[in-house]
């Protein structure tokens, strides 16, 4: 897709990755509808862009029905004015580095909702207001393909998001709407606290800057590539895990002591 003058709805816009995606899309000539919970942060992001008057913001808590309805009505109003959204990017997400036994039921439900159910509901909503041709891009994670200790809920959600994206893309074949899936590896944002960063460093896990991820977002949209995993060796492990999961389990087993150490650090033990 050529992004010049396309309207792009970006969720999680005020986060580390979201800000860089917004900048990268504007550089391609896109007009943005920026969505996040904090209205002040959204306005600051909009005003930091080169052409703020071309973009709009919607402060909405997507974990609530009210927030989802607010976004839907905004998009329907735009479509009535012949300003349909061309691209929906489901980027909002969260995770918590903990053993499953340490998690509360509400925290599990919230994480599953924001990372899986919200993108599904927004994608369903988009079918009534997105342009044709149009694109839905779901931002997942390498953890959607590799089950990793300490991230059971997040892995489950992102795994579901990958299969949802694949199924919806096939379901909409011939409709003019594509559904794409992008899986970043560890990224240098505030989503990871210092203990997670220290663990990744000790394990030798590589991470990318938000700018790198934003570059992949632009590229996958332009090429309309169905799915993409970012970074070696993570993309290789993702493939191996589908064929020979025991090999990946053996590798992770060697890291267990370090993983457990840092989870306990997070919880003050």
Automatic annotation (TrEMBL):
Entry's family note: Belongs to the short-chain dehydrogenases/reductases (SDR) family.
Keyword vocabulary terms for this entry: Oxidoreductase
Presence of keyword Endoplasmic reticulum: no
Keyword presence, Cytoplasm: no
Organism: Vibrio plantisponsor
Pfam families xrefs: adh_short
Stored NCBIfam families: PRK09072.1 (NF006565)
Protein name in UniProt: SDR family oxidoreductase
Alphabetical list of InterPro entries matching this protein: NAD(P)-bd_dom_sf (IPR036291), SDR_fam (IPR002347)
Superkingdom per UniProt: Bacteria
């Amino acid at each position: 897709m050529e992004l010049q003058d396309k309207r792009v709805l970006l969720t999680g816009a005020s986060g580390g990755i979201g800000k860089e995606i917004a900048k990268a899309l504007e550089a391609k000539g896109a007009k943005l509808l920026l969505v996040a919970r904090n209205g002040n942060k959204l306005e600051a992001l909009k005003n930091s862009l080169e052409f703020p008057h071309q973009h709009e913001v919607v402060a909405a808590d997507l974990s609530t029905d009210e927030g989802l309805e607010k976004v839907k009505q905004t998009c329907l109003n735009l479509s009535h004015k012949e300003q349909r959204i061309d691209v929906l990017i489901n980027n909002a997400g969260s995770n918590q580095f903990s053993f499953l036994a340490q998690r509360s039921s509400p925290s599990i439900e919230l994480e599953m909702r924001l990372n899986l159910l919200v993108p599904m509901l927004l994608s369903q909503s988009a079918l009534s207001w997105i342009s044709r041709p149009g694109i839905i891009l779901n931002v997942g994670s390498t953890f959607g393909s590799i089950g990793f200790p300490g991230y059971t809920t997040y892995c489950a959600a992102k795994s579901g998001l990958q299969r949802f994206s694949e199924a919806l893309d096939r379901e909409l074949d011939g409709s003019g709407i594509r559904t794409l899936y992008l899986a970043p590896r560890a990224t240098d944002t505030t989503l990871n606290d210092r203990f997670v960063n220290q663990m990744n460093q000790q394990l030798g896990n590589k991470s990318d800057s938000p700018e790198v991820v934003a570059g992949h977002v632009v590229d996958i949209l332009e090429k309309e590539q169905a799915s993409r995993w970012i970074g070696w060796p993570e993309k290789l492990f993702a493939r191996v895990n589908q064929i020979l999961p025991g090999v990946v389990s053996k590798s992770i087993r060697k890291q267990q002591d370090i993983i457990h150490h840092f989870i306990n650090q997070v919880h003050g033990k």
